[in-house]
Amino acid sequence: MSDPVASLTSRGQAEGSSRTSSQPSPNLPLLRGLVLSSVLLFASLFFFAQRSVTDSPLLQIRLEECEAAPYCVSWVMPAGAGWDAGLRVGDPVLRITGGGTERPRSVVRPGASGSEAPIRAEAGRSVEGASRYTLPLLGLVFVTFGSLVLWRRPDLKSARSFWLMGLAAGCSLALVPASEGALTVWALGFQFPLVWFSPWALFAFYTSLTPGTPRLVEKVRSITLWSGIGLTAIYILTAAAQPNIYPWLQACISIAFILLIIFSIIALITGYRRASTHNERSVVAIVSSATILGLIPLLLLVFLPIASGVDEIVRPDIAALGLLAIPTGFAYSIFQYQMLGIRRLVQRGAVYVILSGLLLVVMILLVGIGITIKPDLFESRRNDLLITSGAVVFGALAFAYLRPILQRLADTYVYRDVFDYREAIVELSKEAQRARQPKDVVVSMLEQVKAIARLEGYLVVTGRSQSASEIISGGMSAQRLRRAYDSPGFLPSRGSAIRQLESDPVLAFVLDEDTALLLGPKSGGEAFRDDDVKLMEPMATLVSMLLARSKLSDELRDLNGRLMTAQEEERARLAIDLHDGPLQQAIFLSRTAVPSDKVIDVGKSLVTELRAITNALRPPMLDDLGLRYAIDWLARNLPGKEAVHITMDLDGFPDETRLPAASELAIYRCAQEALNNVVKHSGATQATISLRIAQGKAILSIMDNGRGFGAAERERAAKDGHLGLLGMRERVRHAGGTLAIESAPGQGATITISVPVEADSALPEAARSV
User: Fold this and answer.
1) CATH number of the domain located at residue range(s) 639-768 in this protein
2) What is the pLDDT of residues 389-419, one digit of tens each?
3) Reduced to 3 states, what is the DSSP secondary structure of residue 116?
């Protein structure tokens, strides 16, 4: 069995993708209106065909007075009852025994050796017994199946061809009783074009089933279409003025039918060879088998004998029953291999309608049983009126009460996606209030909604057209959603709307002028329930608020990063100015030949202080030698370090390792701030510095045995303007890392800084594999 999700890469998706990228979108409301119209057309034809069965059959001829006999045949309907009885234009008629000259039911014509030969119109074999309903019901299967396919995939040319085939075949089968009854003229007038149009639409569908239709096939398709139109025009002319050439025309239409079936089979074989995936080949193989099984009885037993000039071997209404194999094979291809990208032909709404119909049937049966058990209750007209009125009111109330229960049972036990949307909204609101990064909260909320509503994916995109970029995506349908997002006209102008992703509905929300949220499809391509929409609309509002907050946070972080960069650049400039100006003068002063010990001491002290200032502003060894040497120098030259014994563990950070300049500077500044806190505020006597590379991160740990501090003390220090820890955290966050503080009063403190190492950083192989 194939993977239903993977199978969506077959013909339906390929044709849908090419359409959205190169062709304008079809008028979906118009196409779906045609679907409803086709159902009404079939119902009308079926009604008139069944009505014709109850009328007296006619000979379908017209008579006029003539010299050779009392009457002569002036017109005869090809394939009508009179035609089948051997009457032709110009034949003499002795008298009319039923009906009039315009609509005779029975006549008497001259027989052999001066005898009389009565002719009476009789209903055909398809009018009586089970055949009266068998073929129209088969036609209903074709029309319903074709309408469902077009309803699910109105965007596909192949689906439209399939619908035309189903409509033509279904209407032709619905007219069978009428073609042998009282309404033969109009019934045969409809049937003739439908007989050739059905296989032509089938041929058109098969040629579009696999991608890359050859130009020769397109030409054949066009030629056969115009040939059929020409034959129809000739048939109209024949029926109106030249009935006697009908046998030739009948042979032509039979040959056309045979050729179209042969072309269809050739198209399937060619499509099988062109198929690029296992699913496409499986679909073509199943459809080919169903077509051969369904059409061979008609082909060999009906049309081939007629084309040869002899009578059919088997009654057409019997041979036509084999056509049931065609929709059966197509249905199997859809359910098993998602032909045309359709994963579920009948959606939940249709299931609800079926359940409602079954409920009505059960209620009517209960009423019938009640009448059977207590017939005496209806003997009185008054009782009859009261009971009927009460039954109608009670039935309406019971139906209104039981129908939602049945629907909920279907949701619970068939679709398994029932949830309390109010409770779900409360949980989403709690999720939105948790103290985390806004984007993390959005992802968590979307995952919750995905699980609750059984969605296959979600996508948050900002921007339009080629400049669009994904913010958040998840689930197996994310790529399909992105392709749909790029399609013109897919998003509503504002608010929300349900859109079609191939055959599946998805929910599209416009959050602001640049951002959109796409949710769906539901599992199996099911339609959204009211509770789904009630859950997702407030969730979309929360997502919009969180994304706005995330955008503002990103802008503030970017601004802070630019400020820190400007601060470091200013420090570097100041360090250079001090080094090149006052420091050089102090060096000159300390080396002067003036024999004054005091001047020399002052000069040396000034040199030392200026060097300390410039190193603090921008340590040159950080740029020249790297982070390891800078940390080592910082620990050895820390002011006031005499009171603290500092132990260093730098072996996990190889000498030649270099990080991006921003990462090295962030780690160094944090180490500088942390060591100053150890010396000035912690009261510690021992401190340990550890620097290493592990799991793709540079990790700096500084641990002391000082007095420690709690969360309340940290908040109080921040309010008093001591922002050292806050500044460290912001530096690390700007570098893409994290800062962790472990401390408690009387238990010292441990500060751990972790900064990701970029893949293209100059790391030794040994360090990368740690």
Assistant:
1) 3.30.565.10
2) 777 788 788 888 888 888 788 777 766 666 6
3) strand
